Amino acid sequence: MKICIVGDYGPEHYTIKSIHRTYKGALKAWEDHRIRLLDSAKYMMKNSPEDKKLYAREVKVLSCKDPEKMKRAGFCCEKPFLEEKKVVD
Question: In sequence order, which residues have a C-beta less than 8 Å from that of residue 63 and are 6 or more positions away?
Fold first, then answer.
């Protein structure tokens, strides 16, 4: 049996947000979480001029709608993930 884990990670954290039985359900949760992180990054880019470049890179990475491509996008402050894991009996 496989499960799908949705969460986010950054330089100092690894957070699990939810666990799903189906990839389809996990993908919806991942997309919702990605949109929240994207909105937050856009807000910070607009209201934090000293870190504008950092947040501009984050907005670019978070604009990707494919979890696999985003995984390979390199470092970013906070990035959502979707991982499939096999459950051992």
Answer: 38
Evaluate whether 76 touches 57 at the Cβ level (below 8 Å): yes
The domain containing residue 56 runs over which residues?
2-86
pLDDT, tens digit, 9 for 90 and up, residues 22-73? 999 999 999 999 999 999 999 999 998 888 888 888 898 899 999 988 877 6
Quote the number of domains for the chain.
1
Residue 5 has pLDDT above 90, yes or no: yes
Distance CA 12, CA 85 (A): 23
Helix (H, G, I), strand (E, B) or coil at 19: strand
| Residue 22 CB-half CA count within 13 A | 3
What is the C-alpha radius of gyration for the chain, rounded to an integer number of angstroms?
A: 14
